[in-house]
């Protein structure tokens, strides 16, 4: 699944309209605040009272503006319903949004994926701000907050690094920042440090906690009612003194850290990216503080050891069985015209649930047909679910949580006759995936320095995509596991890291293509150098043959593809055998037949150029329309 562009991480997601989506209905679905009385659809939430209450709280504190971000105290990308502050205040339930409220104005910032949804869910108390960047929020605040005015926010909901940006902002404009506060993905680290899992957040096996790890003590701050006797025993098993974990209540973390910091001679190390400002601001004086961008736990967790690598690969073999079952089933049933995006999503979730050690999906399945697939983060609802037909392309981006690993894979298929543009774009997205996957690079190369390889084949035609190219994944953890990936704030690649590779192409109101595989970074022998690495693909599902134009592939790309298909046969077929899935085995063997370069056969070349000649005018017409 493509990673989100956060508030600070503005990704240029192309503006997409979704007017055409959904059950045809004559009822207007978006609010209109410029008529009297305002027009509000039935999906709009009346926020008058809650907004009034917030403003009443701001008055005695003399706060001119109050900021509410869309995260939790651990700066999570996915939040639990109890942390859905933006949704509560505004009615808007999209996964990316920030809010600022003054006595007279209330604004929501979200990116283009969510504009339509926001117009459907918000009432006229709210303005929708469409420039989703920190600069836009800053300009808005500068315009609305009087000189000397105070800006309020919850210090638990902002990271130290967010806060530095904000302080810079205020000091530049000579405004006081009296109530600055901050945010952290601490539960990722902590689940990893103790090898524990919880279920505080949907799809993510995390639990809310903080830890203070000192030279002679380990403190874990956690909601006590979540801790079972087994867990207590586990934490204290085969330990003595300094290695035993001492439990304290989640809410006592500030007091405890304050007390610890008061001890003479101590120094506290925190990661600035994922530690909230509330914890940071009590570590004083400054010389007691040591910082790095990411906590050392997060850095250690990014590199999987041999056992973690083995079991994460194993999880991907079983996961491939479920995805193959979906693709095979769809091929059979779609022509009957009864299946929908939702029924396909249910099918793959169910297929996964039958695999050993599955603990549900790793995120809400993206099952998207035709124009719905052009929305990068679309998941079907009862209102929007399209019927699947042989006339439209279909994209399914899904993953599972297993006790041994987290998976995430996207395949795009067409059950009828793809257009020339669909086939060409699909092939070029595949070329991007292959170009990254087959790259050999020195240890320590950054993903951001090779991600254009995923775009190059598209760029040659003036095509592109508006999301990231890949993200880390965990061993039964988050499906977006920072700090591994291809963005500029990701860490350099080392052997043992897992990342997704997922280029795509989206044509507004028409179709969407994404090809996503998870890969592990492995050492490779080179003729002269040492310490070189490459990617080894661990997702094991063949691509739709119908959409691949092999004449576009270089011989190296074709060779890579054939080797990948051999790997699928070698690893997946024995698993299908052991599960007694004969039909699936046959399907996999058929769909992993080696490709022969079309350039190597005179007959093929002749017949395809003949076709091109005959269809020349039609094709040209389509291409002009398509662009
Ligand atoms: C709101 O209604 C007015 C009057 O019918 C119309 O001119 C305007 O375009 C509408 N605005 C939106 C956003 O629908
Ligand atoms: C919203 O709720 C307030 C308070 O109950 C009420 O006065 C107002 O009329 C409601 N607005 C709409 C549009 O229904
Ligand atoms: C409240 O803030 C205003 C500036 O917005 C300032 O002039 C005023 O003195 C403040 N009042 C109190 C009681 O702090
Ligand atoms: C573990 O043992 C230590 C020392 O005996 C004790 O202080 C601590 O409370 C125990 N922790 C748990 C989680 O039972
Ligand atoms: C769709 O509607 C059915 C029946 O009302 C309901 O059980 C189901 O949860 C809904 N699904 C979604 C994704 O909203």
Task: Please outline what is shown here.
The longest helix is centred in the middle third of the chain and has 28 residues, at 306-333. A hairpin with a 3-residue loop joins β19 (504-507) and β20 (511-514).
Give the arrangement of secondary structure elements.
Elements: H1 48-61, E1 63-68, H2 85-90, E2 98-102, E3 106-109, H3 115-121, E4 127-129, H4 134-144, E5 150-153, H5 160-172, H6 186-194, E6 209-213, E7 218-222, H7 229-236, E8 245-249, H8 253-261, E9 268-271, H9 277-280, E10 289-292, H10 296-302, H11 306-333, H12 341-353, E11 358-361, E12 366-369, E13 393-398, E14 400-402, E15 405-406, E16 409-414, H13 420-437, E17 441-442, H14 456-459, E18 498-501, E19 504-507, E20 511-514, E21 517-524, E22 532-537, H15 555-578, H16 582-591, H17 602-626
This protein binds 2-acetamido-2-deoxy-beta-D-glucopyranose (5 copies).
Residues 40, 46, 48-49 line the site of one 2-acetamido-2-deoxy-beta-D-glucopyranose.
